Amino acid sequence: MSDVLERARGLLGRVLHAHGTSIVITEVEAYGGTQDPASHAYTRTPRSEIMYGPPWRLYVYRSYGIHHCANVVTGPTEQAAAVLLRAGRVVAGLDVARDRRPGVPDHRLASGPGNLARAAGIDLDDLGTDLLGDGPVRLGDREAPGSVSAGPRVGVTREADRPWRFWITGDLTVSAYRRSPRAPSS
Q: Is 27 in contact with 9 (CB distance < 8 Å)?
């Protein structure tokens, strides 16, 4: 499990290049795959199959039937661990991101996992993309993130108190914490 936590922290400050935008990742959530009841991969299904493969692939799913969410599969293979990209700061392609999210303040363009995917133009066609390759969605260099904070994951009902959400402390793009109303009291 420590691998997924280390890789989650390592994604902070990394640049995600996607469909005409570049976004510095400012917030993530780690999911421990087969060892984590909150993970989509806790039970193997056709939707989660990509998570059981090699690391550094993009796992994209539709949330609430309307938003896409982007995750980085971190491996190891068959463990199915992944990191949800929760928020970022658009540093290139600002006009493209604004067109995708009209009327939204710049610091909120990629705040929240569905908003990040929309600003970046990521959808189900990107499922399985090799993020270390040179395709239309890829991970670039990393800026030193500075101070990093940790806390519980957003909106999960199982293992809701695990401090597996990481963010760049004080960054305005970080989304608000919302505990699931269905999560048991801690």
A: no
CA–CA separation, 88 and 81 (whole Å): 21
- Domain range holding 6? 2-168
Tell me, yes or no, whether 91 lies in a domain. Answer: yes
Position with higher pLDDT, 76 vs 148: 148
| 137: enclosing H helix or E strand | strand 137-142
Total domains present in the chain: 1
What DSSP element (H or E) covers 7?
helix 2-11
pLDDT at 58 over 70: yes
Here the tokens at position 101 are 């999210």
Model's pTM, two decimal places?
Answer: 0.92
* Encoded tokens for 56: 């550094």
Does a structural domain hold residue 183?
no
Joined together, the tokens standing for residue 108 give: 């909120």
In DSSP terms, 111 is beta-bridged to 87
169 is written with which tokens? 């402390």
- Return d(Cα 140, Cα 92) in angstroms, integer: 13
What confidence score (pLDDT) does residue 156 get? Answer: 75
Nearest by Cα to 32 from 74, 62, 71, 70: 74
CB 25 within 8 A of CB 85: yes
